[in-house]
Write a structure and sequence with these properties.
alpha+beta; 5-stranded antiparallel β-sheet; 4-stranded antiparallel β-sheet; 1 helix; elongated
Length: about 230
């Protein structure tokens, strides 16, 4: 008669196997959590990068194709909503309207605003009597025509540790470059208001500041634009 040599698991072996299984499941769960969080952060970074790229592209396009004298910067004074406005020669189809001598036929006024929640919005208002004079934009009346370009800009008067002490401009600051010999400065006043025009340049400086709540991650981007007209 054959005698079976098989035996069952002892209680100690069962406990060890159970502990190893629990440890393996814990490791797998930790890996899954890390991968999920990494994916969410990467997606958030992708969205921020896309919104920032769109904002930069649109601001640059509007300021490059406008008349320098029509640009008005806001936010220097406390309580004033940060932003910038200018005249635009682009029609509703996105086509630049030029006259016979290459002078833009101004179609609308464009506004960029930054609210207290950190949202940068672009607005456009048609000029009733379209003409070739680069008029100043009238006060903005907000309606449903505004398009939010990004929502992670730094709100006004918000400091970020050692990186930014806070300012009335927050995450949208537009200024005009002046040069006095080798010294350079950026002021909020358009050259049209200057009493010493020899120091003016045609350069417009834009600063965008971003603040992601998770982190927090602070980013400041500065670029300059040369209006064509």
């Amino acid at each position: 008669m054959a005698v079976s040599t098989r035996r069952g698991f002892t209680l100690i072996e069962i406990i060890i196997y159970f502990a190893l299984s629990v440890a393996a499941l814990a490791i797998l769960y930790s890996l899954f959590t890390v991968l999920r969080r990494t994916g969410e952060h990467t997606y958030a970074q992708y969205l921020v990068s896309g919104d920032l790229s769109t904002t930069m592209r649109m601001v640059r396009k509007d300021l490059q194709s406008t008349a320098l004298a029509s640009i008005t910067s806001q936010g220097a004074e406390a309580g004033e909503e940060p932003g910038v406005s200018c005249v635009s020669g682009y029609n509703q189809d996105g086509e630049l309207q030029l006259g016979a001598y290459g002078v833009p036929h101004w179609q609308k006024h464009v506004y960029y605003t930054l609210d207290t929640e950190g949202a940068i919005t672009r607005w456009s208002k048609d000029i009733a009597d379209k003409n070739y004079l680069p008029s100043l934009a009238p006060p903005l009346v907000k309606d449903q025509s505004g398009r939010v370009l990004m929502s992670d800009a730094l709100p006004p008067n918000t400091s970020v540790g050692q990186w930014h002490t806070g300012s009335s401009y927050g995450g949208l600051e537009v200024g005009f470059v002046r040069r006095d010999g080798a010294a350079e400065s950026v002021v909020p006043q358009n050259p049209r208001e200057s009493t010493d025009p020899e120091q003016n340049t045609r350069l417009v400086q834009v600063i965008l500041r971003l603040l992601e709540e998770e982190g927090p991650n602070f980013l400041e981007i500065k670029f300059r634009v040369f209006p064509k007209y």
